């Protein structure tokens, strides 16, 4: 007894004209736009300014290798970026979803944002960095770091496309895999270092079309002091809960506090559970527990004499009616800061 469907397919096949060409089946992957790898690399260049405009990389991997005396600007988000065997180059990288890996480079100056940052067999690099995890150096010397400080109109959207938070930046928490006794392979650039003195803006007509600013007040990533020595024994923790204006409120609070002479030490954006809230907010935890389900919180640490009182005044005057946790006093503030950032670092694997 034969199969009805096999007979029908045989009949359909026999009914086709012999001279009719059978078209190959089309699959979705056959219809994808072909990627030209040359569009996603700079290799063997010397004494030139080159780059990619917003939208031209669109999340692809990128390779920079064997370049000398070049200015290179990637004004877009990418998956990963590898930089090999480059000398005396200026490099800007828009947000990188994964890792940025420098190998065998020397005398380079860079500004970049990424999930992971690693340097191996390099010497004399200057890096203005935004990194979501602990930056790593290995078999490298004279590596200097500062906080990422950059703006152009498309940059905020590129951070979102790369899955990076502008508030998760551990730029100064460096881990050296190969420390040398009595020496230090890395350091922090002076706090008053001017970004454009290290990573100048592009001069080519094509790249000048990107409206770049390196002013601290306009930087997409809040400019923080990181691991630099604090100017005061008094710090203040502020936690903003998820809502329609959380990022805008955080930025406004930073601007107000900095304008009054306080320093932004560090920032974090992280999800909290009820047990985390109990540890950090203690007796105030019940007030904030219902807000945790709305999304991640944004935490800010400020430093300076009078930081707690100054922050409380700004919050009460500017953000009236908005639920915000602020350290109650300068006596409790150190415990607030330690409790929150210890929990956040553990959760983020730092």
From TrEMBL:
Described purpose of this protein according to its UniProt entry: Acts as a GTPase-activating protein (GAP) involved in trafficking between the Golgi and the ciliary membrane. Involved in localization of proteins, such as NPHP3, to the cilium membrane by inducing hydrolysis of GTP ARL3, leading to the release of UNC119 (or UNC119B). Acts as a GTPase-activating protein (GAP) for tubulin in concert with tubulin-specific chaperone C, but does not enhance tubulin heterodimerization. Acts as a guanine nucleotide dissociation inhibitor towards ADP-ribosylation factor-like proteins. Acts as a GTPase-activating protein (GAP) for tubulin in concert with tubulin-specific chaperone C, but does not enhance tubulin heterodimerization.
Keyword Lipid metabolism annotated: no
Primary site of residence: membrane
Gene3D superfamilies hit by this protein: 2.160.20.70, Nucleoside diphosphate kinase-like domain
PROSITE patterns noted in UniProt: C_CAP_COFACTOR_C, NDPK_LIKE
Protein name, UniProt field: Protein XRP2
Lipid group attachment sites (S-palmitoyl cysteine): 3
One Pfam family hit: TBCC
Family assignment from sequence similarity: Belongs to the NDK family.
Domain C-CAP/cofactor C-like: 24-179
Organism field: Odocoileus virginianus (White-tailed deer)
PANTHER family (alphabetical): PROTEIN XRP2, XRP2 PROTEIN
UniProt: GTP binding residues: 98-99, 115-118
Keywords for the protein's UniProt record, in alphabetical order: Cell membrane, GTP-binding, GTPase activation, Lipoprotein, Membrane, Myristate, Nucleotide-binding, Palmitate
Superkingdom to which the source organism belongs: Eukaryota
Basic residues compositional bias, start-end: 1-10
Lipid-linked residues (N-myristoyl glycine): 2
């Amino acid at each position: 007894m034969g199969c009805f469907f096999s007979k029908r397919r045989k009949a359909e096949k026999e009914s086709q004209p012999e001279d009719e060409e059978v078209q190959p089946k089309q699959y979705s992957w056959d219809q994808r736009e072909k990627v030209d790898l040359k569009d996603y690399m700079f290799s063997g260049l010397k004494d030139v300014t080159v780059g990619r405009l917003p939208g031209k990389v669109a999340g692809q991997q990128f390779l920079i290798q064997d370049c000398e005396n070049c200015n290179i600007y990637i004004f877009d988000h990418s998956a990963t970026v590898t930089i090999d065997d480059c000398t005396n180059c200026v490099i800007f990288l828009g947000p990188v979803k994964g890792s940025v890996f420098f190998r065998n480079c020397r005398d380079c100056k860079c500004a970049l944002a990424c999930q992971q940052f690693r340097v191996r067999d390099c010497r004399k690099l200057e890096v203005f960095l935004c990194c979501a995890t602990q930056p790593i150096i290995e078999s490298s010397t004279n590596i200097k770091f500062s906080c990422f400080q950059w703006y152009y109109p498309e940059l905020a959207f590129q951070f979102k496309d790369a899955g990076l938070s502008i508030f998760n930046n551990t730029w100064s928490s460096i881990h050296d895999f190969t420390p040398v006794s009595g020496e230090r392979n890395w350091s922090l650039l002076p706090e008053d270092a001017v970004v454009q003195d290290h990573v100048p803006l592009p001069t080519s007509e094509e790249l000048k079309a990107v409206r770049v600013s390196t002013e601290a007040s306009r930087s997409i990533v809040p400019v923080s002091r990181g691991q630099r020595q604090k100017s005061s024994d008094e710090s203040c923790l502020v936690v903003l809960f998820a809502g329609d204006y959380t990022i805008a409120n955080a930025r406004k609070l930073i601007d107000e506090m900095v304008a009054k002479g306080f320093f932004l030490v560090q920032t974090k954006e992280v999800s909290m559970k009820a047990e985390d809230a109990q540890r950090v907010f203690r007796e105030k935890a019940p007030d904030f527990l219902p807000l945790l389900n709305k999304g991640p919180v944004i935490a800010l640490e400020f430093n300076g004499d009078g930081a707690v009182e100054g922050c409380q005044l700004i919050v009460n005057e500017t953000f009236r009616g908005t639920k915000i946790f602020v350290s109650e006093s300068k006596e409790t503030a150190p415990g607030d800061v330690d409790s929150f950032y210890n929990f956040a670092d553990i959760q983020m694997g730092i």
